[in-house]
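Progress note, project year one: complex with flavin mononucleotide.
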Amino acid sequence: MSVNAAPSTYAALFERVSLGSLTLPNRIVMAPMTREFAVAGVLSAEAPAYYARRARGGAGLIITEGTAIPHPVAQQSRRIPHLYGDAALARWREVVDAVHAEGSRIFVQLWHCGLGRLNDETDNPEAPSIAPSAIGRRPVRAMTEADVAEVIAAFAGAASTAKHLGFDGVEIHGAHGYLLDQFLWTRTNRRGDRYGGDLLARTRFAAAVVAAIRASVGRFFPIMFRFSQWKGGHYDAKLVSSPQELEILLRPLADAGVDIFDASTRRFWLPEFAGSDLNLAAWAKKVSGRPSLTVGSVGLEGPLDGNYIGEMSATPVSIANLKELLRMLERGDFDLVALGRMLLCNPEWPARVRQGRFENLQSYDPARVALALEPADEAQRAAA
Ligand SMILES: Cc1cc2nc3c(=O)[nH]c(=O)nc-3n(C[C@H](O)[C@H](O)[C@H](O)COP(=O)(O)O)c2cc1C
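Model obtained:
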C-alpha cells in the first residue's frame, strides 16, 4: 500500500470510531455471510485465513457468518459452524487471533434458524424444528415456555463463550425471517400468549434474549442486533410501516442492552418511510438513540437476491453509489457501513477505495465464490 496516497475522497469511511466500549480502526464492516464450509459444525482449516484476508484488506470489523448457538435445533444445516464443542471453539479461536493480528475487530453472529432449518440436512434430522407457531412445510412445533427458556439460555451461553474466546462482541441474528424475526413478524407469530399479539408483545422474546446476553457478558461487551423488514423469499415484507412503529420495535431492545443496530436492507440508498430521505439505519439511530450500521449493495449495482450463493445473480461494480453513501455518512445518518458480496470477491476493497484505486475491482459473481473457499481471493491477491 502506498503511504503517499493523496487524502481520500472517502476519508469519512476511514476515520477511527468509538461506539461505547468498542473502538474500531475505521467504519467498514464485513457483513455476516454464511459460506457453508463447516464440516460437522467445525469451520474449515482455511477459515482463519479467509477472515484475516478481509481484515488485512481493511475491514475494521468482521462479523462472522451465522453460527449455531448450543441448542439442538438451532443449526440450519451440517455445513453451519457451531459455537460449542472443543473442535469448533478451537477453530474459532484461530479465527479471532488471525483477525486480531491484522488489527481488526471481530463479532460472531449468533443464529437460531427456527423455521429456516433444513431438517433433513442437520445433525438432528428426526427432531422437529421449533418456532413461535407451527407453520410451514417441514416438521415443526410451536415453542413452549420451556423452549423459550432453553433458547434464551442458549443465546446467553453462546455470548459468554464468545467473550471467553476473545471475540470483541456479538451480533444477534434477529433478521431475514429466522427465529427471532419469526417472533417479530405477524405472519409467523400467531401466538396467544405474552410473546404474541401486538408489535410490543412480539418484541418480548427478542428483548428477553438481549437481556439474558447482557446479563451473561456484563456491561461493556458490545451487543449488536440485526433486524430487517425483508425476509428470505419475501422482499416486500414489513415489520413496521412508520418511525413510530420502528420505535416500538427497537426501544425495548435498546433498553434490554443493544449497543448498535444493524439495519439490514438490500439497497442502502432507499428511503424507508414516506416524506423523508432517511434509510432504515438512519431511522434506527434516530428512534433508538443507539449507533447504527447500514448495509445493502454498497459498491455494487444489483441487490442481494437469493438465500444461497447458488441462487444469487452476478452484478457489476458501482462506484457511483459511494457518493450517496458518503453524503449520508457525513450527515451522521449511521456510524458503520457493511459490505457483503463485494468483500467476497474483493477482500482488499477498503484499501483500494482509500487509495482511489478502483481499477480491476471484480464484479460480484457467485460462480467465483460458490464452491471453493479461496480461488477468488488468491486471484485478487495476485492482482492487488
Ligand atoms: C453468501 C451470503 C451469505 C449470507 N449469509 C448471511 C448470514 O449468515 N447472516 C446474515 O445476517 N446475513 C447474511 N447474508 C446477508 C449479508 O450479510 C448482507 O446483508 C447482504 O449480502 C447485503 O449486503 P451486500 O449487498 O453488500 O452483499 C448473506 C449474504 C450473502 C451474499
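Residues 1-6 have pLDDT under 50 and may be disordered.
The radius of gyration is 20 Å.
No further modelling is planned for this target in the current period.
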